[in-house]
Design a protein that fits this description.
With 138 residues, this protein is an alpha/beta fold. Helices cover 38% and strands 16% of the residues. The protein has one domain: 3-Layer(aba) Sandwich (Rossmann fold), CATH 3.40.50.
């Protein structure tokens, strides 16, 4: 039986989308995974590109409001930004609530290559946490 995971951030545009794609890619046989945002703002094209660079296609993902998942049972709810942690609704049947704090790559200003570098760094940090999570919850 697969465990259910919800990744949550504010905009559901970058970090939670990358986390969803990574967990599904690395251990989709063990986890049902979704992502949502407290204030969804649309999928960020830089997140799509950063994931495409490592062979993961999230281009068909869409931003979803967390309200859509209220009342559902999750084994793990994982917030990936500090604001989402502060505003996360209660999921009473959740087995475990985790918080992973990642910088917001969408907030970075500067030339396109500098912004892409930040998206890559955050993607790689999320991938490391996902791998640790997979090992820890076996």
């Amino acid at each position: 039986m697969k465990q259910n995971v919800l990744f949550l951030c504010t905009g559901n545009s970058c970090r939670s989308q990358m986390a969803e794609g990574l967990l599904r890619y690395l251990a989709g046989n063990r986890f049902e995974v979704v992502s949502a945002g407290t204030l969804p703002g649309g999928l960020n094209p830089n997140a799509v590109e950063a994931m495409r660079e490592i062979g993961i296609d999230i281009s068909q993902h869409c931003s979803k409001r967390v309200d859509r998942f209220l009342g559902q049972r999750f084994d793990y709810v994982i917030t990936v930004c500090d604001l989402a942690k502060e505003t996360c609704p209660v999921f009473p049947s959740t087995k475990s609530l985790w918080h992973w704090s990642f910088d917001d790559p969408a907030a970075v200003e500067g030339p396109p290559e500098e912004r892409r570098a930040v998206f890559r760094r955050i993607r790689d940090e999320i991938a490391d946490r996902i791998r640790s999570f997979i090992d820890e919850v076996q």
